[in-house]
Amino acid sequence: PGYAAVFRVDEVGENVPNIRPGQLAFCMGPHRSYQRMREDHVVLLPEGMDPFNALCARIMVVSMSTLTTTTTRPPARVLVCGLGLIGHLAVQIFSESGYETYGYDPLPERRQLLLDAGYNALPEHPLHNPALCGTIGLVLECSGNEQSVLDSCRAVRKRGEVVLVGVPWRARTDLPAWDLLHAVFHHFVVLRSGWEWELPLHDTEFRRNSIFGNLHAALRWINDGVVSVDALYKKARPADCQAVFTALKNQEWPALTAAFDWTTV
Fold this sequence. Notes:
This protein is an alpha/beta fold. It contains 8 helices and 11 strands. The protein has helices at residues 51-54, 57-69, 85-96, 108-116, 146-155, 177-187, 211-224, 241-249; strands at 5-8, 24-27, 42-44, 77-81, 100-104, 120-122, 136-141, 156-164, 190-193, 233-236, 257-260. Strands 6-5-4-7-8-9 form a 6-stranded parallel beta sheet, with helices on both faces. It has a 3-stranded antiparallel beta sheet with strand order 1-2-3. Strands 10-11 form a two-stranded parallel sheet. Helix 5 runs parallel beside helix 6.
């Protein structure tokens, strides 16, 4: 994933007591062969952890911000729309946190990947499922599709939350704003941003939820097998980056994302 890296520490500054050369560390660093980070922007990997699996912790924290801020509590029903990397991991996170979680994506290969991992994947939006429509407490909308946002506002229970996690890169429909406003008003929907940086970077004395707190948890969950990521990425050489990005853009890459292996340089 972009802006995530695992590196072996070569050297540390004079006042860095908790990190030593030779250890493996995670950071939100760019695609490059060397990283230089502040100590408080680095998380040491658990002993024996696969460094490629650890990269996925960066994507987990996107939906973990919603997990931290939502007023919907387990065992409520949760829907995740869009089963790309963020949505797939969100289904795992919320399921393992005690929610009754369902994933939805129109692409059968993405639904199958979720089913193979042992989670619920729906072939159509629950708006069309009488057993689910009106019972969902929280929707994580990870596709950025306005039709999906509208359907979700119509499918949640009264006072349900619809959180906009996916980026609306471009308009995909000609839906009038009135349709969305009508659904929000008459279903008492809480429609809000899924901006992950709503959380502070670090815990404070009176606030124990943060981006780096979630990163620590994400790494632990992956290492303990609570969240499975092995099937979500394929390794690639940095020299092939343009081909990889083009394949991802065209949905031709054989996995949800790529992990660049800098030991090939």
